[in-house]
Design goal:
Blueprint: H1 2-19, E1 47-48, E2 59-62, E3 68-72, E4 77-81, E5 87-92, E6 114-120, E7 125-130, E8 135-140, E9 148-150, H2 154-158, H3 161-164, E10 176-178, E11 184-188, E12 210-215, E13 221-225, E14 230-234, E15 241-245, E16 267-272, E17 278-282, E18 287-291, E19 298-302, E20 325-330, E21 336-340, E22 345-352, E23 357-364
Length: 388
Amino acid sequence: MKKLLTLFIMSVFVTLIQAQQVPSLSQGIIKNIAGQPGKRAFAGDKEDALHARLANPSGIAVDRFHNIYISDTNNHRIRRIDARTGYIETIAGNGRTDFFSDGGNADMSSLKGPSGLAIDEKHGFLFVADTAHNRVRLITLKNYPDMILPNNDPMKRWAFSKIATPDDMSAEEVSSFHIPRGYIYTVAGNGRRGYEGEGAQAVATSLNEPSAVAISPDGELYISDTDNHRIRKIDHNTGKLLTVAGNGEPGDSGDSGPAIKARLYYPTDIVFDKQGNLFIADTANNKIRVVERRSQRIFTIAGDGHRGYRGDDSGRSTDARFNHPTGLTIDSKGNIYVADTDNQRIRRISIDFENRQTRIETVVGNGRRGIMAKILTLGKPNWLIRAE
């Protein structure tokens, strides 16, 4: 529950900034949106989300209709909170951990320890890091309009290659096809844990405990291949899986050089800004790093590599210390919010790329572990204000 809470708190503050409905971060509200604190179980589908029970949720996403999607990790399900009713329901996963019903109904399928989530609003797809299955899955969301995927859409070539081009037909013969809603498909990973090299089709190669997914501004899917110590992407023209950061050796090196030659150490979350720069929660290195879009070079923007807590308002975020940072999000101004997990805080990094200056501050949390929070004033919870 801790990671979900920190991710939700980050989304609260980011949304407030985007919505511009309050004058500063000193006004806000922290409240439960789902689950009963301290009661780990599975219960509550089709009821008020506050009465539901969750088990170690670790991922969250919000769609354009303001519905909230949760990776209910140890229940091996994806659940959705309806923005209008506040009710929760399972949209994927049957609670079992075998690999079942790929290409079929999502609510009948099996997941195993799902974590990171990302929504492709253009198509109405939810990407899921199906971590313990060593796969990335795609769910065609039911609450989005039906669509015909044209032949020139890159998504058709890599995400739906098997159903878009039946065995008895050539790609040229299939110009477009209808997207069935409420179905689930594997888009990366063959289920075997490991690393098999570069350039193979994403569905035919191995991943190693993937924990996060993100969609770049140009529509490519990026994967935090955590236990391979790499960030990888699916090339949207070829469907091949390529490394964009990390050489596969755990460690801390490579700043200012090519990202693919750097060392990462269990990266667990990734996020893009509007310019296409890729930010990485380099968790075991206790750093936040960025891969610049133009140069494809990697830099540390926060964290000195030592585990601890310090550096708020010091004027330079690279002097700060984190303690197992595991979650990232970004606001419309380019500020990065970090779930500094074992410091029990949410911290904000302000970045001036032009002058290469950064600053860090705590925006939520006093460092003590617990669920008590000071209640301040705001008209609505974030998921009813705006989601981007």
